[in-house]
Amino acid sequence: MTMRIYIPRDAGAVAVGADDVAAALEQAAAAGGTTIEIVRTGSRGLYWLEPMVEVATARGRVAFGPLNTANAPAVLDAMIADAPHPLRLGIADEIPWLKRQTRLTFARCGVVDPRSVEDYRAHSGYQGLQRALQLSSDEILADVTASGLRGRGGAGFPTGIKWKTVAQASADQKYIVCNADEGDSGTFADRMIMEGDPFVVIEGMTIAGVAVGATKGYIYIRSEYPHAVIAMNAAIAAAKRAGYLGTRIGDSAHSFDLEVRVGAGAYVCGEETSLLESLEGRRGIVRAKPPLPAHTGLFGRPTVINNVLSFAAIPFILSGGAKAYADFGMGRSRGTMPIQLAGNIRYGGLFETAFGVTLGELVDDIGGGTFTGRPVRAVQVGGPLGAYFPRALFDTPFDYEAFAARDGLIGHGGVVVFDDSVDMARQARFAMEFCAVESCGKCTPCRIGSTRGVETIERIIRGERVAENLAVVEDLCNTMKFGSLCALGGFTPYPVLSAFRHFRDDFGPAPARLQAAE
Ligand SMILES: Cc1cc2nc3c(=O)[nH]c(=O)nc-3n(C[C@H](O)[C@H](O)[C@H](O)COP(=O)(O)O)c2cc1C
Ligand code: SF4
Fold first, then answer.
1. Helices and strands, number each (H, E), in the chain
2. Domain 3-99 annotated CATH 3.40.30.10
3. Beta strands of 65-222 (E only): which ranges?
4. What pLDDT does 512 receive?
5. How far is the CA of 232 from the centre of ligand 1 (A)?
6. Domain-by-domain residue ranges, the chain?
7. Looking at the predicted structure, is the pLDDT value of residue 508 above 80?
């Protein structure tokens, strides 16, 4: 009998040896005369256990991890004998870290073969599109609006309103654009889902096309994601072969086609208008708004532009029901958020859960504190433009409004943890430097202000007229906040000012705290 073994092909798992483990298992099986079938999946998102390998049994998939080429033969023996092994983690779905999640968007990630439309369909795939094809445009838009889904790319804008604006625009051609630039520090959910369940993104974009009357879509993927580019291209080709892309999709009157475009490595190309410039073949410079992309977007046509996770949430909303999605969450943050735990953290990975979980729960309980074992001192949530939160704010629930009320943002759901060896003055300097390096240069507060910001914070670090220079940086931050054209210049003040506010002791000549630790 053939034994089926699941090994991730996810870039994160491959980086720690998943390909070598696959080869070692094949070799050990051949040597022992065992017939195995290896299915390459995405990752389940428990990155400290990668490469995590699963074997199909009558009781469900049994997981082992982390594997390497040395321990793979013994793990294979344990799989064959269904015997105990130190790396045996039990039934994968029962692993507590996975079991306590609410996986609506990531339900199939790490489970299915990302190259197989049949496997996707066998796990409820394309049910959302099937339903959407029976509905009118207005009915689809009503579902998306009722779900309460807000854009997962950073700004949290209601997806239903955006789609409705494009649906109401009249034009000879409309476009759907998927923002897969994923530039935020500590984030990897877009990459994971594109590599582990690419059809859910394709299905979400197709539903958007049907809803607003667009026949063409582009997925803009950052160049640093070659595995995701391969996965998306393979899935697009498979969807075309199966009749889910192209003309008369799913035997309906609708047509929809998709192409991947690869970015060239600029953070600002994740900003939607800059992304559109880049897609059109120009340098990524931010466009002034209005006009909104929903009216005048790609090639001057009405365009829906959404993040990967926003599109990936759509199939569940259409198949499981808007109410089922909206029943999760708190306040105006409905549904689930795929949260990415990163930085100096013990259990780093993808944790999808309903909005409302507190920052403390995420970092201390789910994340298990720091990897180094030292106390957690600061957490940056929402990428390089997000605020640094001290432990005193760990009661903040993961919710757009709750974070905004404390001058923070949840952005794309990235949580980056720092221990007590962090120097927050240097982090503030880094925030300004990041802005200076990544600025598209269109507006003065960002282009010049960030460079002056770096210089002034450096003076503070050197201990030069600290109080005066702190006031200069605060003034500069206000100019950037209110005078910048886009959120790169406009939000850089948040990490800088939060570092000032919550970690004031670090600003000045050589912080006493760090000197004492040396
Ligand atoms: C500097 C900057 C970088 C951004 N980078 C990304 C990104 O990498 N991915 C993303 O989806 N949105 C990014 N955004 C947000 C987009 O401009 C836009 O709001 C988003 O693509 C809309 O999709 P959503 O409504 O689904 O979130 C960025 C914004 C700014 C200002
Ligand atoms: S804020 Fe910075 S990145 Fe944004 S438009 Fe102005 S110069 Fe460009």
1. 22, 16
2. yes
3. 88-91, 175-180, 216-221
4. 56
5. 20
6. 3-99, 117-324, 329-419, 424-512
7. no
